[in-house]
Design brief:
The structure is a homodimer. By secondary structure, chain A is an alpha/beta fold. The first copy, chain A, has 9 helices and 12 strands. Chain A has a 5-stranded mixed sheet with strand order 3-2-1-4-7. In chain A, strands 10-9-8-11-12 form a 5-stranded mixed sheet, sandwiched between helices. Chain A starts with a strand and ends with a helix.
Chain lengths: ~325, ~325
């Protein structure tokens, strides 16, 4: 009998979501564990396995599964390894596909989490029918999946598409990135980047702001969104600052692969027009004339968990 | 009879070189005209035609030619147009392939000049056998041709790979680019960019320098090279400044497509290690740890005129 299911794993810096996916792209069940809780990769995989079995047994056991597709930060499509991921607890080179495959007893394939999201978007989401687009994931980090001519770009070594680690600030005051670099886009446009921007702006402005009432060390983009909705000028300033930097880099990305669209995905997209408006304004200002008005910026239209899980699962059918 | 030849046109901001190429990639004859001398595109094509006939007649006339491949700034592979090229005398959209085809009576295909150089490098040069590399042309402007999975990247609209127009300086003092943008790499790493850097450094330093004896408005990278070879510290400083900026952007480019190599082409490559050393040092410093020591930076090993002419000519065989 043809095995009817695959597992899709979306490993983020914070959560790891595992879903059961059928051949029509439906996520039948999902479960999750906290990524940071396991400092040993074997403990992580053991915990994931235990959780997985709770949803696998009810659909007939592991015999019903063709394989596992995993999207992980710095996941390498060619080698199956996770290599030197700055936002994960495991340093160096982790032979993730092999370890998963040994534990679960079925084949496992790995890609970058953002590449997996791009595949999900192309097959099921906003990029359906597009052959050239860039997916930008705004989460714990800033990831990217680049699609050219209908194919995810892996590059010479399998690691292409790390646009969160391009430089946006070359000044001596630039923020230091988790990867050790300076002034990377990720230090400004990730969840922690936005929190840091909020903290900096709140502590230097004399303006009245709703955000001052919150614990300044734990402000989230959701808090900033709520304040902006309530008419808070400082909250708008935080989105303008973040969106302007993002849009400026998007103009750079367009010079590279001339995509039809840039698709935004992840927590910050919930901020809607507050983040979208400054992104588009800044991108258009910085684009070469020949691209002005030609490149769409869109939000993903897949449910956040589903895009990455579905995208990752697509690897297991291949 | 199978037509044995094609024409390859390398249109630069300064010179336009036309060559007769045979099926084995030999350039049998070449001629050239000055690009800037013709403010009307029809005059340009008429002049090119007259020059071309002087080398075409001796090999048997236009009947011996299968077609024309042209590499031109902002040349569009999909439409055959040259569109809004900042360094050419013709503004707006020029239907170049159609006009050439009508004048010469054989098919004409167009691509970006740097994409043509990348094709030449892949088929005949330093990138032979590589499937992922980036070609950077350092000439009147700074162009780029990006090859991923063995194919030139054209993007959604045919204009992908304009890396000279990525931003390296975001400060208020950033140089203004020919395209209207601010702080683009081209303003610093092109021939005019280097001349401008030389002028700025010479007029602000109190150091003794051989370059001060030259006409400060007409210093070339050749002059700077000669001075560096003679031990001039200011000349070295000019190359260090230029190379550091280039290397910094190269690190950004690597995050995009993870190439096996970045290949440098054009006038400045004659400066050899004076430019190469700071480029490599800066790129390595700015690369994410996972790419350090893995990406080659090389000079083109084709003769300067040949790479672009051969690359362009390859379009005519397709």
């Amino acid at each position: 009998m043809e095995k009817p299911y695959v597992l899709g794993l979306d490993m983020g810096g914070t959560n790891s979501v595992l879903g059961i996916v059928d051949a029509r792209g439906h996520v039948l069940a999902r479960t999750s564990i906290k990524t940071q809780q396991y400092t040993d990769i074997n403990d992580y995989i053991a915990a994931l396995y235990d959780e997985a079995m709770k949803i696998i047994e009810p659909v007939g056991g592991i015999e019903m599964f063709r394989g596992i597709g995993a999207g992980a930060p710095n996941g390498n499509y060619y080698s199956g390894n996770i290599e030197m991921a700055p936002n994960l607890p495991w340093k160096g080179i982790v032979p993730f596909a092999r370890l998963m495959s040994e534990k679960f007893g079925i084949p496992c394939h790995v890609t970058n989490d953002a590449n997996a999201a791009a595949m999900g978007e192309m097959v099921y989401g906003a990029a359906k029918g597009m052959k050239n687009f860039i997916m930008i994931t705004l989460g714990t980090g800033v990831g990217s999946g680049i699609v050219i001519d209908g194919k995810v770009v892996y590059g010479h070594d399998g690691f292409a598409g790390e646009l969160g680690h391009t430089v946006i600030d070359r000044t001596p005051n630039a923020r230091i990135c988790g990867c050790g670099g300076r002034g990377h886009l990720e230090c400004y446009a990730s969840a922690t980047g936005v929190a840091r921007t909020a903290k900096e702006i709140i502590s230097t402005t004399t303006k009245d702001t709703l955000l001052r009432k919150l614990d300044i060390d734990n402000i989230t983009s959701k808090d900033v969104f709520d304040a902006a909705e309530a008419g808070d000028e400082v909250a708008k300033e935080i989105f303008d600052y973040t969106g302007t930097l993002l849009g400026e880099k998007f103009a750079d990305f367009v010079t590279f692969s001339a995509p039809e669209a840039i698709i935004l995905f992840g927590g910050m997209t919930k901020s809607g027009h507050w983040i979208m408006d400054p992104v588009v304004k800044s991108m258009e200002e910085h684009l070469m004339p020949l691209w002005r008005g030609k490149v769409k910026v869109m939000f993903s239209d897949l449910k956040e968990a589903d895009a990455a899980v579905l995208g990752a699962s697509a690897l297991a059918w291949e």
